[in-house]
Specification:
The chain has about 550 residues and is mainly alpha-helical. Helix content is about 65%, strand content about 5%. The chain has two domains: about 30-390, no CATH class; about 395-550, no CATH class. Residues about 1-10, about 15-25 and about 480-495 have low confidence and may be disordered.
Length: about 550
């Protein structure tokens, strides 16, 4: 008598053509595989961005804090723990030290290449997960579409998000592997830990947790009873919550999460149409293909597979919905990567089904046609990422001018808060990092009348606390070598300088910038040590470094 087939086996997904079944590949075959080609294209496109500009404010802030934290661990030195634990958008204990170690070896480029490595690993995990669930052809399409999107290219960026995306992808891959490997409880526990660490790494990743939990239920449902699948999903959610709570408590990060999730959203009031427009520009193609894939799956597949593909398509909507609720487009492209990772699997499934409807083509010709079809969206995504990497000022000249001043001066070094992290990162002062100061307010207007601004700043300068002061003058014209800097340094008379500062101050949003500058000009203990352009692709300004003359 033949052995009875286990009841659970009857619920498995039907076999998929070219389905990946976990057989190991020889290294030589991997380097000739489509996945290797996709990763190579992703790496080359992202590497063109790595050296394209100096550090962004957030990058500099994370790496600066990470460097001080590593020094604290190794030598017991002080680090700004209260500030980092209360103001960062992820736990300062996870990504910042990793990024700082890499940055200490290869600078900002090294930290960005580390993030690129995280995103490449996320591509590999996407391919493996999609192969397991939807077949190898769908996995190739999914990985290809993922690799050329702007959020993926943009995340060759020294921040929390790439590591968080990778850990979320790891959790999803472990979920997909649970039905095919021994030790299911261990895999479920590992998936819960990976998801929890992803959330602690970047608090923004919490928004994708419901997608992962439902994804797990739908993946496990064909292999077991609904109640058992629901129990596993509940264990995944509970384990994730428990590990997350433990890590947040140990790292003293609850205040930072409250700041990132609650306080920041309370100050955002952007038009919902702007959120929708940007989300469409970054992920519209993937969303359309995912919807097509979901419609085909619901119409042609069994209930379980149709529900899974439909849910993968729905994942594209989670991040835009969260940003709409928060009324902000801030970091939208980075956050979209969470939903796109799931959505491209539905898109890849749709592409596989659509490809079958075309006349029979040879494999090389079909591959060539697909490459041509993806070339245009790849170019658009790269152009968008390039624009993002040039959306902040190039600080090379500022750092070169300020470095000798910082070394020669004593006392505090004032840099406005929006640029302070840039100078702190590029000009480390070791144990003297507290010399960097942003406490000299550029807006005392709340307490003083306008005619008292200049005397207020004169008194601050006379205190002798500040060894150097860096100011930024926004302009409406290009500050390439020419008029602006020469005018600022011109000895033609105070009227010329004052007229320029009057114009700059009235248009900068900081009307007392002129008062501080005039106080510096009248204080003979300070001299203008350097000035130069501080331009981005869309905004132009001038920096000026004032140094206290040694007694």
């Amino acid at each position: 008598m033949k052995a009875m087939m286990p009841a659970t086996a009857r619920h498995r997904y039907p076999p998929v053509p070219n389905q990946f079944v976990g057989r190991p590949r020889r290294p030589s075959r991997f380097f000739l595989s489509p996945l290797a080609a996709i990763c190579a294209v992703q790496a080359v496109m992202s590497l063109t961005l790595v050296w394209s500009n100096t550090a962004f404010e957030d990058e500099a802030q994370f790496l600066w804090a990470g460097r001080l934290l590593v020094a604290h661990w190794l030598h017991g030195t002080l680090w700004p723990s209260e500030f980092a634990e209360s103001n960062f958008s992820g736990s300062p204990m996870i990504y910042p030290p990793l990024g700082a170690v890499t940055s200490s070896v290869a600078g900002i480029a090294g930290a960005r290449i580390l993030s690129l490595a995280f995103m490449l690993l996320a591509t590999v995990l996407l391919y493996l997960t999609a192969s397991r669930l939807l077949g190898q052809t769908a996995a190739i399409f999914a990985a290809g579409l993922w690799a050329i999107t702007e959020p993926v290219l943009r995340l060759a960026f020294a921040s929390y998000d790439p590591l968080s995306v990778l850990l979320t992808a790891l959790s999803a891959w472990l979920i997909a592997e649970t039905n095919h490997r021994r030790g299911r409880p261990l895999l479920v526990a590992a998936a819960a830990v990976a998801l929890a660490v992803a959330n602690v790494t970047a608090y923004s990743g919490i928004v994708i947790d419901p997608v992962v939990i439902v994804f797990a239920f739908l993946v496990w449902l064909p292999d077991t009873s609904p109640w058992r699948a629901l129990l596993r999903a509940a264990c995944l959610a509970g384990g994730c919550a428990a590990v997350f709570g433990l890590l947040m408590t140990v790292s003293h990060s609850w205040a930072g999460m409250a700041f990132a999730v609650i306080n920041r959203s309370s100050f955002a009031h952007q038009d919902p149409l702007a959120v929708v427009t940007q989300a469409w520009g970054y992920s519209g193609l993937i969303a359309v293909l995912a919807i097509v894939g979901a419609a085909i799956a619901v119409a042609t597949e069994g209930r379980s597979r149709g529900a899974l593909v439909a849910w993968l398509a729905c994942a594209m909507l989670v991040v835009p919905a969260a940003q709409l609720r928060a009324h902000t487009t801030e970091s939208l492209d980075k956050h979209l990567a969470y939903g796109i990772w799931f959505g491209v699997m539905a898109a890849g499934y749709g592409c596989r089904k659509l490809l079958r409807q075309l006349p029979a083509l040879s494999k090389p010709l079909a591959a060539f046609c697909c490459i041509i079809a993806l070339a245009y969206p790849a170019a658009i995504s790269w152009e968008q990422a390039w624009a993002r990497f040039h959306g902040w000022a190039d600080a090379h000249q500022l750092i070169a001018s300020l470095r000798p001043v910082a070394a020669q001066s004593r006392g505090l070094i004032y840099v406005p808060w929006h640029e302070a992290y840039i100078t702190e990162y590029y000009i480390p002062l070791s144990d003297n990092w507290r010399r960097w100061n942003s406490a000299l307010p550029l807006d005392p207007s709340g307490a003083l009348s306008q005619n008292r601004w200049e005397p207020y700043y004169a008194a601050q300068l006379h205190s002798g606390r500040y060894g150097a002061i860096v100011l930024f003058y926004p302009t409406t014209f290009s500050s390439a070598p020419g008029l602006p800097v020469r005018t600022l340094l011109s000895p033609a008379g105070a009227a010329t300088v004052q007229d320029l500062l009057d114009s700059v101050g009235s248009n900068s949003g900081e009307p007392d910038l002129r008062a501080l500058t005039m106080a510096l000009e009248k204080d003979h203990s300070y001299r203008l040590a350097a000035a130069g352009p501080y331009d981005s692709a869309h905004n132009f300004s001038i920096y000026a470094v004032w140094q206290k003359v040694p007694d």
